[in-house]
Amino acid sequence: MISQQLLLTIFLPLAGAILMWIIAPLGRHAARVVALAVTLLTLFCAGQLVMNFPPGGTVAADFAPTDAAWLANAGNLGLDIRFSVGLDGLGIWMFGLSALLFVTAVLISWESIDQREPLYYAMLLLLEFGCLGVFTARDIILFYVFFEFTLIPLFFLIGIWGSEDRRYAASKFFLFTLAGSMLTFLGLLAIVVWDRQTSGFDVFRFSIAALTESLQAHPLPREWQLLAFLALFAGFAIKVPLFPLHTWLPLAHVQAPAAGSVILAGVLLKIGVYGFLRFSVPMLPEATATLMPWMLWLAVAGIIYGALVALAQTDLKKLIAYSSVSHLGFCMLGLFALTAAGVHGSVLQMVNHGLSTGGLFAIVGMIYERYHTREISQLGGLARKTPWLAFFMVLFTFSSIGVPGLNGFAGEFLILLGMFQRAWAEAPPLLAGQLLAIAVLSVSGVVLGAWYMLWLVQRVFFGPLKEPEAASHHEIHDMSWREIAALVPLAVFVFWIGLRPGDFLSRMEPTLEAARGPAAAAVAAETRSTKSEIRNNTVISKAANALPDSVSDF
Amino acid sequence: MQDTISLCLMLIPALPLAAAVLIGALGPRLLKNYSHLPLILALAGSCVCALALYREVGLEQAKSGAQSIAGFEKVITLWTWADIPDAYDLRGTGATAADSGPRAFRLDIALRADALTAMMLAMVTFISTLVAVFAAGYMEGDRGYWRFFAYMGLFVFSMTMLVSVSNFALLFVFWEAVGVCSYLLIGFWYTKPEAAAAGVKAFLVNRVGDFGFALALFLIWCTYGTLNYHDSLPDGSVDAAALEAASSNATAGSPSDAAPAGPALIRGVLGQRRIAAGDYVTGGIATAICLLLLIGACGKSAQFPLHVWLPDAMEGPTPVSALIHAATMVTAGVYMVTRCTPLFAVSPTAQLVVACIGAFTALLAGLIALTQFDLKRVLAYSTISQLGYMFLALGVGTFAGVTSGMYHLFTHAFFKALLFLGAGSVMHAMGGVIDMRQFGGLRRLMPHTHWTFLFGCLALAGIFPFAGFWSKDAIFASLHDKIHELDHEIEHRDEHSHAPAVGQHEGAATHGTSADLHPSPLPKGDGTSPPGPLAKWSDSQLATSRAVYQWLYYSALLTAFLTAFYTFRAFSLTFYGDEVIPHEAGHHAHESPPLMVMPLGVLAVCALLVGILAISNPTNWGTNRLVDFLAGTPSLAAGEIALTKVPEQFHLPIAGISTVVAVAGMGLALYMYLGDRSEARFLQRVFDLQGLNRLTDPQWVLGLERVWWIGATTRFLRRNHLGWLVTLVGYVLAILSLILAAPLLVGNFVTPYKLSLRKFYFDELYAALFVWPLQLAAQIAFWIDRWLVDGLVNLVGRVPPAVGSLMRSLQMGLVQFYALAMVLGSLILIAARLYYAAG
Predict the structure, then answer these.
(1) Could you tell me which residues come within 8 angstroms of residue A340 by beta carbon, excluding any fewer than 6 positions away?
(2) Cβ of B793 under 8 Å from any chain A Cβ?
(3) Least packed by Cβ within 10 Å: which of A74, A118, A475, B661?
(4) B287 at the A interface (CB within 8 A)?
(5) Confidence tier at B100 by pLDDT (50, 70, 90)
(6) What is the ipTM of this complex?
(7) Which of B218, B352, B542, B788 to mutate to probe the A interface, most A CBs <10 Å?
């Protein structure tokens, strides 16, 4: 029953998209009402699933699994490709968040989309189908199909309903991500082939659970692990986007319609982090351990660099887009710290970023709807004219800069704590110095983050009222009920995660521990071996013992 | 909850929060101009609860008395914030044996009641009630009336939580939460650009402090494997009986057996059992933890070098300045350092740094306050200065020092809130003008404000018998005792040379528990020389700290003089001299309404009495009841700090000196500013080095001859054919002025007067050192992003079309070419095959 409900949830948006094609002649209003109804229904189903999810997380089997032969033995090629979906601790919150954000997306598109609405909502629903699928797929091919499928509707969303430069943005976004994911596919295939060679089965297996288990029992040779890791990295890192592969993101964000930005930032970027945690880390633990410092350096570079570039922006949307680069850097940092706190924080931060940045992009969309500008310098003092908009802006800003009591803090605190623990107490001795540098630098990213966001709020919402010339012709209203309804659900979760992150963490705990376990063990083994090497060398051993205490009294 | 303590502990933060939510929900539509009522009622309720809590804690302390291991504490847990099992394994790290084993990352929302918390809660709720009453009058007619009281409720909630949580992570949470409230309230009048900018500045400077604080938390977690203050069981339970059973189990079984099973008892960082055992990591890690905590404290308590936000924060409404930026929030740093006394006690370096920062800030802020014309800014700098005193006291590191810091915090809250509310009353009457040059002689117009303000000034200056006198004297006395103690140790060290010479070598040894390190080598005959920590110090350490503390004492005395001076300067400028009223005040400049005067009166009485009440212990005069109460706090009740506890006594000479200094400062200010103020203007010119400047002015130098005695001399010289001497002097002066021109030009900006007036150019310095370089870096990063990173990507993007166009040129449609290519290709293949076969 539960399994059917999961299938229903995933396919509802697809059905909605087809329905949209049928009711297209009925016009704008019908299209958006139906779209809202479909997303709400999906949210209802998804919400029920999430509520029924075991509070202690799933240990061995997925929650609400469906497993059916799909392309199995097609043409007797020995390909065991299955239609296999389910929910576990890693996917559950992104699944729920996707369902939630699409309601917001429909609500904020209500007035702002005024051409080809049925097609627009059909694309949005297709995108939702892809997003829900990608977080539930339990088969590599199925995952990859959904992974690539998300590109297509978003390509059209940006390319048709975007701003001036939309064609360029859409094709750049599409080609960039596609190029990376080709390599990812190669990496995944390498894993499948290796499994066939070692597992003793006579078929190519594509089930993620089976592959993870098999690769942990018979790990790839070290060099192959590194190659496979890099191949997977290509697709996932572009998706995240990890510095320096991020340049498609600001462009896509600026050109996309508001709803597209919300979904892009809130859901699609997380597929990258999700991919790392679903494939790279558990399947290639040794490569993960070896490349850990590199990944951490890239993450912290993204944090600082993204924040600095955000500080230089004059465009509302671009600023928030670059802030995403910075925030996703935190996600990657926690993930590759490979400590319990770090990985938990990372997955929580994926959700947090979706809520806060999704909310911020929605608000920017509302500002654009009113003033038709995104230039920070043309706006000022909006708090007096639109107090509710200012309230939500401040709320999501606080959430984004990690003010305690709101969700951003819970994620960031766990990530930074986890990173510091890795650097200070659990680092391989030779890496301790640079890991500590990474930890300290990443904490300073929090200061920069507060700087650009508060600066933005100060410029746009505080100070004397300043509006663009064109806006004086028509009256500017504060938020309508529809707009408030779009943001309130996000705000509820902003508070909920901030006050009781335990409710969310406990549900993902077993899955994350299983995912990070082998990689963390590999790092620990490396630590032990280098430590014993050092111990054999007495001269160095003295230096190493003195290291943490170098700050002596007086 | 069953007992009074738990009930009070929950009600105290809950009431303001409920009021804030209520006002936020109903304020704009329903409550409107009655928005203050829910808040005042809630705060009064909180205050009653806090007083009840204070009493209960006192009773419990008396009851538990001697048999408790380390003071009295009671912890209640509300819910679990997060729980990640097996997050950390302390084995193989620097932790002591009793802590080792796997640890869950577990955070419970836990509140605690102990003496320190009770005192802070009583102070915070009492002052905030009065400020809320004042604000009801002050904010009348403001369009954000409800918003103000909602924010304020939120602030009091955060502040009361800050002092009552029992966990470092939660401390950090509310540490930032009060910062957010402060941000919102500073920027309350958000349409004023200065207010909005000041809010952001406060938040960012505090974030820099929080950066250090966060690192300190992470280091504590890595070192002790928990962030709780209190001891708990692994499931978060704090039931006293269960804890006792667990701890006796742990001591019964040998640690090596217990380790694999995990600790049955998780000893909190500031838990009673750890404090009693003195089981703290020492050496570099301890110093690092303390200094990082200090960075956080410096941010929140506006200490050098992070003091720059507090004066700007005066853009907020004045009741906010009184409550948040004088009495409560800014003292959070002092509270935190006091709470962490056991951590600081094992690091003399950190204590010395705390003392130096405190004394330096006190002096710096005192110097700046001398010349400010904005009444609220004078008070802001005096707040920074007084907070500096508190840090100085904490840095003394003895029991007397730490408690005198808290005592000063307590008294300061009353008289500084009084002064700020008085300034608010003046501002209210003057139509929002706060520049002391634009008003004056208000004593007849505002008699109540005048008298209450005078009480505040006397207390701030430290005049007998006002509150500030007692607490400031306690700080001086503790400093004096510390110097005395160091002297004693230096003098008598040789006599105890048989005592193990744990000098530089073992003293610096790390990870030792300090409990086994003080076998009390000193004889206890001399009452003033406590055994313990000092014995481990090397001779040079002793000599250095003796010298440093001596200088700090002098600096503190100088600051006391400055304090008295600027306080009465501001007082005289505001209330004496000719009656001047700015036109903003209109024709109805008047004394404030009773609603605002009432809190002033109450606080004035407090400013007079809180010091005496604490001191006047009927049974044992001279001891301080507040200090005795605080001694029951676990952090202060056991461990090294308790060893430095000596019988309290009142130092008459010390009090005499500080009184003389304060009276001198007060007298000088009154002399200079009560009359026609010509002396003040003269002093200003002197400190502005205006005479020196003229040297570079040729007209002035030439004009010297018109001065009669110079003219007579030159005429006399010229008559006697010694005119060349005059020319020579002229040349020398010209050269001198040329040489001096550049420095004097710079000197125009750095005269003592201008340095003080322009706040030692800290804002400009920070802008040049941090803000502009970062903005430049931002622009550079943006440029790199557009042209290098994206350029590279676009370059890669050009490759497929380029390859494609190359290929296109091959497909020219010439059949002969295709045939040739085919033949060539076949040949190459055949050649390769042959080569392979041959090889």
Answers:
(1) A418, A512, A513, A516, B84, B85, B86, B87, B88, B105
(2) yes
(3) A475
(4) yes
(5) low
(6) 0.88
(7) B218
